[in-house]
Specification:
By secondary structure, the chain is mainly α. It contains 14 helices and 2 strands.
Length: 294
């Protein structure tokens, strides 16, 4: 019986085409534009490494605000959201079917409606007048006497961004972890009980986590990518780009500022390449942590 060796490649062809058109080609174009001076009107002019040199030596906004803010936000929201995703997924997996489905939908929905919720919910909670929920509560409790402009304050904007980021961090990584937990072989738990495992915490450490490293890796990579690419939070909450006092300015906001406000596309492309390298570095670290040991 003859086997058609071309069939697998035909099935892969649509994915390869879409991946090439929407991922590979834009990356190549961005890398190419990062070595040019391009204002979207005139033909790009080659400037070599000038954009990268200016980014590292002359761009004080990037070095003093965008980069530190992005790292701070990513190091808190990334691992924090990842830990919350695992703990909540593990807790939900212990429930019966109907409560599990309902709670999964409740926790997953913020990641789908984060933009709308920020405009409708969080901006009302942290509104800078006395009608804002938080200000009204604090005034009524006698903690403050005058309203605080939460979203336009350089002191409070980043903590609020972190709160909103953690709230909306239960995305596809959360679903992947939940699926991995639910698909763990029950015989492993029975064998663990025979070997001396006495409680659910020990089951989680010695059985659940080691058997779902692929799902853990996927969730970690998604958390890294989402946190580093999440630049809409500060701009949406504060209503401006740059954010007030650059307190919530992330690298993505810096790219949008130069690319779509100043129309310095070559420089914006250089910043995006640097962001890509940062994401690749942290993704590599996550891959090392969850790599299967032979």
């Amino acid at each position: 019986m003859r086997t058609d060796k071309k069939s697998p490649f035909l099935f892969l062809l649509p994915y390869v085409l879409l991946f090439t058109v929407f991922i590979v080609l834009p990356i190549i174009v961005a890398i190419g534009l990062s070595f040019t001076d391009f204002n979207t009107i005139q033909f790009p002019g080659f400037v070599g490494f000038k954009n990268y040199i200016n980014l590292l030596t002359q761009d004080s906004i990037f070095m003093q605000y965008a980069l530190p803010n992005t790292v701070t936000y990513a190091l808190i929201v990334g691992p924090g959201g990842y830990a919350l995703s695992f703990l909540l997924a593990w807790a939900i997996s212990q429930l019966t079917r109907i409560p599990r489905i309902v709670l999964t939908l409740i926790l997953y929905s913020p990641s789908l409606t984060a933009g709308t919720a920020m405009a409708v919910l969080w901006k009302i909670i942290f509104s800078g007048d006395s009608m804002g929920y938080l200000n009204a509560f604090l005034i009524k409790a006698g903690i403050i006497t005058t309203p605080i402009a939460w979203l336009t304050s350089a002191v409070y904007l980043m903590p609020i961004m972190i709160i909103v980021g953690l709230w909306s961090s239960m995305g596809v990584g959360f679903l992947a972890i939940l699926a991995g937990i639910m698909n763990t072989n029950d015989e492993l738990y029975e064998a663990g009980a025979i070997d001396g495992i006495k409680n659910r915490f020990q089951e989680m450490i010695y059985i659940t986590i080691p058997t779902m490293k692929s799902q853990m890796l996927f969730a970690a990579v998604m958390a890294i990518v989402n946190t580093f690419n999440n630049g809409a939070i500060g701009v949406t909450l504060s209503g401006s780009n740059p954010t007030p006092g650059y307190a919530g300015q992330l690298i993505v906001n810096h790219i949008e500022d130069y690319g779509f406000i100043r129309y310095e596309m070559g420089y914006a492309a250089a910043v995006s390449v640097v962001l890509l390298l940062i994401i690749m570095f942290f993704s590599k670290v996550a891959s090392r942590l969850f790599a299967e040991k032979e």
